[in-house]
Design brief:
- The chain is 56% helix and 0% strand.
- The longest helix is centred in the N-terminal third of the chain and has 17 residues.
- The chain has a domain of 34 residues.
- It is built from 3 helices and no strands.
């Protein structure tokens, strides 16, 4: 059994895998929501307020 792939077959497989990866990525809005969610878990050491709600992070 020969499992050697041609360069064309390799490129086609990589193209499919790349598109599958890109399809799983969040949109810009989705990424913004993820980042804000993480920033809301970081609290100012002197105040019981997260740095996002405190206004230390700007868009």
């Amino acid at each position: 059994m020969n499992t050697t792939l041609t360069q064309s077959e390799i490129n086609a497989k990589m193209s499919v895998e790349k598109q599958a990866f890109l399809d799983k990525q969040p949109t810009n809005k989705g990424m913004e929501e993820i980042i804000i969610g993480h920033l809301k878990n970081i609290y100012d050491p002197e105040l019981p307020v997260n740095i996002y709600d405190l206004g230390l992070v700007y868009k």
